[in-house]
């Protein structure tokens, strides 16, 4: 799993944060997204790798839906000429999804698991 998170980190930064011009960070998403339709589809396809990692990590269903929603917003708004190109530079769906993965890796809780804060850890 550690290897997948490292790959996800590299991919998210490459797509959303790779370049820095005058303090403004952007990634290949903004550049590839300039290619009508095909660029947005390619970025969405690459972004789904992070969702696949979430599936491997048994992320809760709501977190997976949140990740897919981030990708969908990026994709569908990205299809709109000019506005979509701006969103590609600012939305940073992959970094948002990476944060979801890393937060889950730090505090894994299985979906449906009930945590009783009153009960001592030794009795869980």
Q: What descriptive keywords fit this protein?
A:
mainly alpha; two-stranded antiparallel ribbon; 124 residues
Report on the structure:
The chain contains 6 helices and 2 strands; from the N terminus they run αββααααα. The chain is mostly helical.
The number of E-state strands comes to 2
The string of secondary-structure elements, in order, is HEEHHHHH
Radius of gyration: 17 Å
Structural class comes to: mainly alpha
Mean pLDDT across residues:
87
Could you write a compact summary of the structure shown?
This protein has helices at residues 2-16, 28-32, 38-56, 61-78, 83-90, 93-106; strands spanning 19-21, 24-26. The chain has 124 residues and is mainly alpha-helical.
């Amino acid at each position: 799993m550690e290897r997948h998170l490292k790959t996800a980190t590299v991919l998210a930064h490459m797509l959303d944060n790779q370049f820095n011009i005058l303090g403004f960070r952007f990634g290949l998403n903004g550049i590839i997204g300039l290619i009508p339709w095909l660029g947005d589809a390619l970025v969405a396809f690459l972004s789904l790798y992070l969702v696949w990692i979430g599936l491997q990590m048994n992320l809760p269903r709501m977190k997976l839906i949140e990740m897919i929603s981030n990708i969908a917003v990026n994709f569908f708004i990205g299809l709109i000429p000019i506005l979509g190109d701006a969103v590609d530079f600012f939305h940073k769906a992959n970094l948002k999804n990476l944060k979801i993965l890393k937060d889950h890796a730090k505090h894994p809780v299985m979906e449906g698991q009930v945590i009783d804060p009153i009960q001592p850890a030794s009795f869980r």
